[in-house]
Model the fold of this input.
Amino acid sequence: MLKSSARLKAFGRRNKQIGLAPGSVVYSGEFTNEPISIDLFRVEADVASYERAVTLDTALDVTQNELRWIDVFGIHNTRIIRRFGDAFQIHNLTLEDIVNPEHRAKVEVFDDYLYVVLRMLWLKDGVLEDEQLSFILQDGLVMSFQERQDDIFDPIRQRLTATPTRFYDGGAGYLLYSLIDIVVDTYLLVLDHYDMQLEALEDTIVSAPRRHTLDRITTLRRDLITLRRALKPLTSMMHSLINANSGFLNEGTKAFLRDVSDHTNEASDRLEALREQLSNLHELYVTNLSIKMNEVMQVLTVISTIFIPLSFLVGVYGMNFAVMPELTWDWGYFVLWAFMLTIAVVMLVMFRKNDWL
Amino acid sequence: MLKSSARLKAFGRRNKQIGLAPGSVVYSGEFTNEPISIDLFRVEADVASYERAVTLDTALDVTQNELRWIDVFGIHNTRIIRRFGDAFQIHNLTLEDIVNPEHRAKVEVFDDYLYVVLRMLWLKDGVLEDEQLSFILQDGLVMSFQERQDDIFDPIRQRLTATPTRFYDGGAGYLLYSLIDIVVDTYLLVLDHYDMQLEALEDTIVSAPRRHTLDRITTLRRDLITLRRALKPLTSMMHSLINANSGFLNEGTKAFLRDVSDHTNEASDRLEALREQLSNLHELYVTNLSIKMNEVMQVLTVISTIFIPLSFLVGVYGMNFAVMPELTWDWGYFVLWAFMLTIAVVMLVMFRKNDWL
Amino acid sequence: MLKSSARLKAFGRRNKQIGLAPGSVVYSGEFTNEPISIDLFRVEADVASYERAVTLDTALDVTQNELRWIDVFGIHNTRIIRRFGDAFQIHNLTLEDIVNPEHRAKVEVFDDYLYVVLRMLWLKDGVLEDEQLSFILQDGLVMSFQERQDDIFDPIRQRLTATPTRFYDGGAGYLLYSLIDIVVDTYLLVLDHYDMQLEALEDTIVSAPRRHTLDRITTLRRDLITLRRALKPLTSMMHSLINANSGFLNEGTKAFLRDVSDHTNEASDRLEALREQLSNLHELYVTNLSIKMNEVMQVLTVISTIFIPLSFLVGVYGMNFAVMPELTWDWGYFVLWAFMLTIAVVMLVMFRKNDWL
Amino acid sequence: MLKSSARLKAFGRRNKQIGLAPGSVVYSGEFTNEPISIDLFRVEADVASYERAVTLDTALDVTQNELRWIDVFGIHNTRIIRRFGDAFQIHNLTLEDIVNPEHRAKVEVFDDYLYVVLRMLWLKDGVLEDEQLSFILQDGLVMSFQERQDDIFDPIRQRLTATPTRFYDGGAGYLLYSLIDIVVDTYLLVLDHYDMQLEALEDTIVSAPRRHTLDRITTLRRDLITLRRALKPLTSMMHSLINANSGFLNEGTKAFLRDVSDHTNEASDRLEALREQLSNLHELYVTNLSIKMNEVMQVLTVISTIFIPLSFLVGVYGMNFAVMPELTWDWGYFVLWAFMLTIAVVMLVMFRKNDWL
Amino acid sequence: MLKSSARLKAFGRRNKQIGLAPGSVVYSGEFTNEPISIDLFRVEADVASYERAVTLDTALDVTQNELRWIDVFGIHNTRIIRRFGDAFQIHNLTLEDIVNPEHRAKVEVFDDYLYVVLRMLWLKDGVLEDEQLSFILQDGLVMSFQERQDDIFDPIRQRLTATPTRFYDGGAGYLLYSLIDIVVDTYLLVLDHYDMQLEALEDTIVSAPRRHTLDRITTLRRDLITLRRALKPLTSMMHSLINANSGFLNEGTKAFLRDVSDHTNEASDRLEALREQLSNLHELYVTNLSIKMNEVMQVLTVISTIFIPLSFLVGVYGMNFAVMPELTWDWGYFVLWAFMLTIAVVMLVMFRKNDWL
Done:
């Protein structure tokens, strides 16, 4: 868990150089020296071709009458990003957004293209991964910019290969929708994951809370804060996208996007429910601590209250006064025992009545 | 209670296959192998006929000039659902919504029909049941899709048989209204149930709180979170339904729906009041714990404060020093008792004054 | 207090029969067999006549050119209510609302009349009473429907008798305004009552908190929740009433209603302030508990810390070892006393320095 | 402090007679028998005349071409207030508002005048005072109605005398603005006061919290609730005033009022910050209590844990069994001391390691 | 940290003279006797000249066809500020705002200029500094008014010198944008700083919480309140600026400002996340205290519960009764030891089972 949290925490922290000219395309993410890699999908009527790691020139080569998806992994090489900008008339401010991996989800409508940025969150071997995802939509072209090779788009790649006609007919807008749809579906999977984590946490708290449990609550709270920071702007971004006045999205695509927006709202509702539940679990944990403390104190009090007076009594008859009549009585010792037992029994009955035992 | 919670928790969790093409009509609920069953109500002027478990062909057979209610139990057989889609021109996205049993309440207006989805919550032998309910409204036709055989529509079935004319005159919109009305009324019954649960809980906390009480609070909190997730979208769904620009709902029906909307708002208000009350009860419980802890500590402190100094004193006269003048005094023992009694009485008076006894 | 709470709690709970046809005029309140009673006020120019317990026929008899107030006590006899509905063209849905005594405050504009429903809250011998109040406004006619004989309208009755001209000139709208005004003023009185209760509570908590105090806080919290449920919809109801597009309310009346709306907003503000104050008082109470616990623990700790080491010392010299040199010293006993006193004094000084005494 | 709180608490409590006819000009504040006093300011071009305690007739005497400020102290003599109403065509509802000293801040636009009501809060010898302030604005005339002689307008009176031309040119609107401006500036002073109180409170809590501190927090909380009730409607009142469609306020004056509105918003922001800070201070105080409790308990536990086992040991060798071999050993006593010292040292080391010392 | 807090706390406190005429240009900040200093930047086509500490006359000298940035340090000399007002037709109310260093961020559109005021927050040697910053935008002219010499604009100065053409082409609007941009970027840096502080705090709380930790939380809370007071109005100010209907901002500049607005919203989101995280950390800290208290109490209880009964037993056999049969048994002493060991072992097993060890 710690590993995922560590990654999550970084989201929002920036190395940004203060005072750069606007539209300065300067990478502000963590340093990496992986090379940038570009995948290219071409769909022409019912034929789809998929080339991995194409050269920049191949990617930039524009041929008519086809649907293309240029999938760029790595945004730290700003020289290459700028080449894309030149080739496809992308505004410098957009390029700057693409290479700064800490943006809130948003949509921007330009004359030449539509720009969408959002965060992709997914689970990899039970560890949460996240990165920024930028899309450029033009006629017949979707460009996606990701930070690393790893992603969640394999099902789309398979469907593109299996049913190219559908995508060809739907156009670039439909492809963009499919990509966003899978991102949002993955959010729901991540929420399922946390749902189960919370259930497990509740079981732990109810049955056997430990100190470690508190760290667990803390980690989960931080994760949910991060999830919320990613999800909240997404909801309004989807709203903007559906209402965007752009020629690159037709009504058919918008109908599909409305469906995605339903899922985003659902995710938002569920996240709020999770947050509330976690907060309740913390309260439950604290209340459990109080209950346990009460039990501990009751045990201490019962033992002390019974034995401290008795110890006083036996102390009395341990004194060495010359004149202590009771000590000489034949039955003194046994009478004292009887008396002490009576006291103990009376006290136990009283504790029982007060519900302390 | 646990059983109902277990069911409730499942709401929102999905087995959805990530990356499916949009409009993929794939069932995502829990696995079941009950057969799908279809009930058919036909109303022609003042005659109503009710057939249970009709064949698919009977259900799909369209005859003019009558009001029909096709009531489908089971949504896991997507082949059958698709048959309905083909027969009544229902969009694939709608079919996908029908077979995914975890949707937020919503209304969608299509040219050929009106689609309404909401959650049905009811109590069965004191246990809360819930499932998704989809309605398709067309001219002279209401289709309802439920997950299981069990439902809350028997009063409507009786009224349909008893006063068919009223439904025939009101048309399909009126029938839809009647079905939604009963769903919302059942929400109010469920809230009554929780209202009584909270009253019982308050009595328990005030009179005899136990550890078990905390689990009860936790369970109720989770249930109210789930209720809220079902109820919150319902409120805005009713608003959309009343303002829906659809030819399938006339003004008369909308007047009735406004009445339902009043009830939904009322339910929403009451739910918020319940949530606040439960949160207050938790605080009450915790404060009660503190009060009890204080009482326990006071007892411990009173006993300790009186007897620890006295035990010290008797310890002193239990020492074996060769020279201890007091031990040889004739009245030493009795003087000491008098002294100790004085101390004890003074302390008791002081505790009484400080309101500790 | 408990009695008022018991009554308040009932608000919102219903015996409603699920699945009734809409507009089914079926009483859903608590069972009663008091007969329905009707009061009738007639104002003709400067003459007002007041008849108690008139017959239904008298009430329904329509004569021109006068202002009438038909005041109906009891809503459980639905046959009589339906008679009113027939005589004055009142929609079945409205009749249904009138006889279901758990509605949120609302206004409904019909062609033939204006319908207003709200809750009347008042103090009777220090006990809070509440019931539903429905008004039907037509030209020259106000009908009011109350649950029981008891109400708060006596000042209006006196003014009607004393200055009939004013009401005659103002018309039915002015009469309706006067009735609503007095209802809202009574809310302010109820808030005053709770204001004083909270002040008394604060005095108790600051001076002498007891276990009973917590029950008091709980009761008050529940009452304020109920007050809020009654008051919140009233605020928006007043807004609707002022903006209602109905011929039965003229501009002059609306100016008066704006004044009532000011009071409703004021009541709403004050209620929020009361709720916040009560929540602060609970925190205060809990903090006081903690302070008291701290004091108790400090006493215990001071006593224990001083005497436990001393008891150990006297225990040492109570041992029966054959060789214990100190025991044989002539001044051993007195040296030990001096040593123990020194320890005790040093400890007391340290406690004083740490602010524990 | 208590004195100021006592006054503040009264705000909102009313003696209002229920069921009065609307526009009944009946004083509902606290009883007083101070006489009403009227000050009159007249500005003609560059000459200002100031008369204290003029007669009613002088005040009501209307002369053309001058700017007048009629400043009325005391609102309990409703006969006099009604005289003003008659002389200046003031609506009865407005007069009713003027004499009921518990109104939320609001603006009302009438054909003949503009009515503004707000609360004046100020510090007098460190004690908070508050009263209601009503303004009537007409052409060339500002009337102000205050509860008592005491007020905050002396700087305005001096400026009126010193620079009458400025006011004469600005007209009545400018004078009204000046009066409201000083009221809002005084709010900011009051906030400064509470700002310093909170700083002092924080110092107390951090350095030397005492039981008394809690009362301080309680008092401050109640004061801030009252401040908020006065300030919240003021913000929206200023908004209404700026947007008021009234001939008595020209654009120049509105520019000035926008400036006042900025200050009101600033005051509102600062109040929220104060409230949050106070709530944090309470949490800080409670946490400090917990820390202190922990320290106390640790001391108790350390002392008990070391000495209770040792006391047991010395108890053992105080027993009187006939056969107890150790007692007869020559070095028994010294060996036991060594053993006990070892135990004590080991325990101290363990406590140190667990960070308990 | 304390130093920064001290400075921050001052923000919002004012020495304002109550009752001044509006537009009274009277400095209300802290007293200072630093002289006012003016820097002047002139850009003519591709040549930029930078003069430090120019005379007032130089600054006020207007030459055509160039872009100027007049950067004024010090606002306490109101005579000089008034000279600017006269030279550039600035309204008195604006001048008053410039010299009162406690304003909320806002934009005001005048015919002759655009006025922007906001707060500049930055870190200097790890200590937070803040001051008010006012901008006047006219054709070819940006005037900035700062409180002190120190600022964050050096990167802009360097870029002005390095690439004057870009600024010359962009005009005064572009320069204003650049200055605001750097202010907002610095907010993000400040948030990064607090992000790291919170991480360090969390590490401290999880590993080794101390009393000092609570002071840290308190300081951070107060700082975040202050940050929020500066940031909240900034968000709406940016919104106003983008929608400002002013000829001094062209569409190109507004596109850049929208980018800044994105960053402001991002900062706002992050601040809310920080606030929530800090609040969670406080809860974590308090819960940790409870856990530690529980541990302490368990140790005390275990020790007491084992040894108090045993001490009682050895006390019994320390009594001096004449007849105590056990004392005379040969094996009495050893049997007692065996019995006591058994009791101790049984208790330890029970504690282990109850999870207390």
